[in-house]
Amino acid sequence: GENVEQHPSTLSVQEGDSAVIKCTYSDSASNYFPWYKQELGKRPQLIIDIRSNVGEKKDQRIAVTLNKTAKHFSLHITETQPEDSAVYFCAASKGFGGGATNKLIFGTGTLLAVQP
Amino acid sequence: ETGVTQTPRHLVMGMTNKKSLKCEQHLGHNAMYWYKQSAKKPLELMFVYSLEERVENNSVPSRFSPECPNSSHLFLHLHTLQPEDSALYLCASSQDTPGGAEKLFFGSGTQLSVL
Fold first, then answer.
1. A101 vs B55: CB contact, 8 Å cut-off?
2. CB A90 within 8 A of CB A23
3. What is the pLDDT of residues B66-103, one digit of tens each?
4. Between A44, A93, A107, which is nearest B101 by CB?
């Protein structure tokens, strides 16, 4: 089955710096790669996602890149702010369509701390 | 509020107790999920229901028993749990289409402690 590895497990940056979190996946059939942010004591929430027909996607200060050949994808946060501090989870799935469901496999999470 | 409500928020139970977790989604989605979140582990997919049919059972012990009476409600029945089952149990829903996977909306979770 699918296996998703995520690095680093913790990341501390100064406010204004960039942060990069990397994930690798094992199943070459995976075609959907979301990133979730979970603030302390709160539910995970989707912040950005990318499908396998796209190599990069941006949304303001966050971007995700995908390398299908190497089977890895990364989250990039620029100009970090204290409110970016949270646990970030990557995930992968093969949304096999036909009305079938989304079997997301998550990474172990990265605790990002943005120091003011 | 994401439209997915879980109750209770906290639950403490003994190993011989029977309890149930409840999840309700108000988003009109066609799929619902149970995930287990333990410290320093990835979110573990437990069960998936699509159109009220269980389509995934990820080798979960039989002491966890899911129930999906309709597309808006999902339960997780618990009995004779072990201390290692203590974790945050998250419910989620999504609207899946023939085009593929869609965004998961999570509930706030039930923090379970098994004594």
1. yes
2. yes
3. 999 998 999 999 999 999 999 999 999 988 776 666 78
4. A93
